[in-house]
Amino acid sequence: MYKCGFIGIIGKTNAGKSTLINSLVGQKVAIVTPKKQTTRDNILGILTDEKHQLIFVDTPGIHKTKNQLDKLMMYNVRSAVASVDIIFYVIDGKKNLENQEIENIIKFASETPTIVGISKQDINKQENVAKIIEILAEIKNLKAVIPFSSIKNLNIELIKNEILKLLPENEEKNFYYEEDVYTDKSVRFMTSEIIREQTFLSLNDELPYGVAVIIKRFEEKSKLIVIDAELVCEKLSHKNIIIGKGGLKIKEISTNARKELEKMLNNKVMLTIWVKVNKNWRQLESLTLIN
What we know:
The protein has helices spanning about 15-25, 70-85, 100-110, 125-135, 155-165, 185-205, 235-245, 250-265; strands at about 5-10, 45-50, 50-60, 85-90, 115-120, 140-145, 210-220, 225-235, 270-275.
């Protein structure tokens, strides 16, 4: 018997959703930074074995919308919720459970089989986790509550097993993707995401979140991949921060991104990044074209 289904990974920004996806799939399919709203698109992470295919949908963090980018991100969350077989709602175990989150979970659990995961168990206070579990126990229709740590690989197999319990069996192989596919995103998309990730990591808190990456050239040669990218920011002052004194910061970003890309592509990479100012890019209707 075979099992296959879509699992929406839902939760507030910076709750640990992308790290969980990477841990479940065993591959880097979503970028991870300490900054909120790092994930902007729905990204599939696909885990396949002989009898099962679990398709995890990594979604942007739930937050209030302020601009066209925010609206697009929340549209991605709603579309994921509407089309998955199971919802896995991630709660940051370091924080108190807010009323809005409780309302979200109640709504999800009333409509779709829902599991709640309490993340970051390697650094959480157990009394806080116990309090969260006590509150969640009052919610009807919840299928399971699982404390976990993606970093320590704690209860990751338990999460997979609980998800499999909720998927229907099929006598015929009903997989959506080939067995060697682990994400639905193109190499160009993943390239842009890695550059954006390394930009955030290199700049820490020096730069607001208004950064996008456009891949202008992706050329595969015999022993080298040539990549040209534009890093789009909103202000000239942001551009100066990204470039850094004497160009040192953009060099650091390029070097770190190139190393990550060589791991992903298993090939040598020549990466060139230009920094461009477009103060209105987050308001563009064509935001799906930017990433």
